Amino acid sequence: MPILLVVGGGLFGSLAAAYARRQGIEAVVFDCQRSGAASPAAAGLFKEAWAGRKLGEHYRQALPVLERLCGLQSVLLQHDDGSPESFLFVPPRLILEPNPVRAEVTAVGDGWLEAAGQRHEGWVYLAAGVWSGAFMPGLEVHGKAGAAFAFAGERAGRIHPYAYGRQALAFVRDPGQTYFSDGTAERVYEDKHERESLLRAAALGLTDAPCRRYWGQRPYTPGGPLFVQRSPRTWVATGGRKMGTILGASFARRLVEEELR
Ligand SMILES: Cc1cc2nc3c(=O)[nH]c(=O)nc-3n(C[C@H](O)[C@H](O)[C@H](O)COP(=O)(O)OP(=O)(O)OC[C@H]3O[C@@H](n4cnc5c(N)ncnc54)[C@H](O)[C@@H]3O)c2cc1C
Question: What was the pLDDT predicted at 134?
Fold first, then answer.
């Protein structure tokens, strides 16, 4: 059986590799740590209402995959009036490939890729986020950038909706820290966006200096998330937008259960 060669060790690529291994397929992930990769910045939250009718099927397909691979967690965030809101949650650190091959993939063809001057053969899954267009001429993918911040110490979960479809939220994503993000997603990210995000963090009580800043570009493709067979042994998946955990898991299932034969 061919091995699976995955380009990109973000949520999309890591979930595909992990699910393939679960099904007995050997997988190798290549990731060259591009600055602006989305996945390390992700909160890792999701709920059915966010998926809506358009992405509802992905949501249903994704849950058993995530449960099997990492276990589903839930987290309770409190609104300003004290009412709780519950989310499902998988921290990115439980998903992301721990030891990918740290090399840039420089060329890809049907059933092969080149990295660090070496050619590798197998099934190829291109999951390179906003950089996916480099491997598929004509593919339109653009980034919408946002920052997230970690603050020292574990604080109670909070949520504060501040505009239609936008909410500032703070919770313990990783032990010993409180993670903050506010859904900022800009094609042109400027200093003022950063300042506004930090003001929203302060309004949730996170007034000290962050101990870590994350900045990532969510991949958007016109017409919705994209999963396409580019040639007989090569597939492309991207367009995770604000739902990368769910979409990455749903596409991992599709790749492994429906395409790799
Ligand atoms: C602040 C923020 C908060 C978010 N919160 C959530 C959330 O709560 N829930 C949710 O579901 N989603 C969330 N998202 C969205 C989610 O992060 C993205 O949808 C998802 O991470 C996209 O994953 P990806 O694997 O497609 O892309 P990426 O994570 O960008 O990964 C692509 C990888 O490909 C690698 N790469 C690119 N080119 C090459 C090459 N030539 N050779 C080798 N490697 C290459 C890069 O280094 C990168 O690691 C959030 C995003 C941001 C920015």
Answer: 94
